[in-house]
Amino acid sequence: MTHTGSGSTYDPPADSARGARPTAPTAAAARRHGPPPSTGLPVALVTGASSGIGAATARRFAAGGWHLLLSGRDRRRLEETAAGTSAVLLPADLAAPEGARLLAQAALRQTGRIDVLVAGAGIGWAGPFQTMPHTDIDRVLFLDLNATLHLVREVLPSMVAAGRGRVVLVGSVAGCVGVREEAVYSAAKAGLAVFAEALRQELRGTGVGVTLVVPGPVETRFFARRGRPYDRSRPRLASPGSVAGVVWDAVSRGRDDAYVPTWLTLPGRVRGLTPGLYRRLLNRFG
Ligand SMILES: NC(=O)c1ccc[n+]([C@@H]2O[C@H](COP(=O)([O-])OP(=O)(O)OC[C@H]3O[C@@H](n4cnc5c(N)ncnc54)[C@H](OP(=O)(O)O)[C@@H]3O)[C@@H](O)[C@H]2O)c1
């Protein structure tokens, strides 16, 4: 049992897929790719920065002149994301005990502030729920939901104290509608969506905002990692760069949510307004 800085307790599951050992970002582990942040630059902490959406988002923010703190587990891929920037690498396993707390501490030690947190780390699992190993239920829920909440919990006080900041949560259309044979992933992302809504209300007047980014399928290693390719004809796969552009735009405009592509707001709206019709359409068109 781990006692977090927030006073909560939890039992993070081991990462069975990678057999990864708990990794805490230490001063020695943090590698700079350039000069220390020249004061005044806004700072973004991006998790999942070693691949896919997180990596593309990190590159978009770097192009926009931000100073970056990049986290993921794979140091080599983090270095690729950071190439040509002054980003600081903070490798961390967010499924490890205290992973989120240690990452937040290391990040704040580096720069003293975080203007934007992009919580992009996440994994999927696909298959009939009845066959899903219990360890995988825990793994998906822990990384996609719990670890994200713990990280936000650790970073938020510094944003509120500064009177500014934005938390960007990477949800999924699965969390809006519930996708067959992705039940636990859908549940985790639905949890994130409702968390975003509740937290946004709580933070009103603090200067800190919450953005929920809701992508449909995106062409990343996500599908290979979960062991089942994307096999639907639509929605079509978006590029990680297009999601990164939407994240950038949402942060620039202080938007509460952003769908990629934008028409993906529709299924959730139909389901909310007329669940019966939504299910009939689903049964017919899949
Ligand atoms: N691809 C899609 O179709 C899609 C659609 C909607 C939402 N999303 C969401 O978008 C986010 C990014 O996914 P992606 O598509 O970019 O997938 P991806 O290319 O597989 O990237 C996943 C990222 O999460 C990191 N990660 C995985 N386990 C971790 C752990 N235990 N600790 C720390 N970091 C860990 C990975 O780091 P390492 O590689 O270093 O382990 C990697 O950087 C996820 O939250 C996913 O649910 C994806």
Features:
286 residues, alpha/beta, Rossmann fold, 8-stranded mixed sheet, two-stranded antiparallel sheet, globular, disordered N terminus, binds NADP nicotinamide-adenine-dinucleotide phosphate, oxidoreductase activity, oxidoreductase
Describe this structure in words.
With 286 residues, the chain is an alpha/beta fold. The protein has one domain: NAD(P)-binding Rossmann-like Domain (Rossmann fold), CATH 3.40.50.720. Helices cover 44% and strands 14% of the residues. The protein has ten helices and ten strands. It has an eight-stranded mixed β-sheet, with helices on both faces. β4, α1 and β5 form a beta-alpha-beta unit. α3 packs parallel to α4. The longest helix has 29 residues. It is globular and about 55 Å long. The termini are far apart. NADP nicotinamide-adenine-dinucleotide phosphate binds next to α1 and α7.
Taking the alpha carbons of the first and last residues, their distance comes to: 42 Å
User: Fraction of residues in helices?
Assistant: 40-55%
Assembly annotation: single chain
Strand order of the largest sheet: 3-6-5-4-7-8-9-10
CATH topology: Rossmann fold
Looking at the overall shape, the CATH architecture is 3-Layer(aba) Sandwich
- Separate helix tally: 10
How many separate domains? 1
Question: What is the overall silhouette?
Answer: globular
- In N-to-C order, the SSE pattern is EEEEHEHEHEHEHHEHHEHH
Q: Give a list of the ligands.
A: NADP nicotinamide-adenine-dinucleotide phosphate
CATH class: Alpha Beta
GO cellular component, one term: membrane
Domain Ketoreductase: 42-221
GO molecular function, one term: oxidoreductase activity
Organism: Streptomyces griseomycini
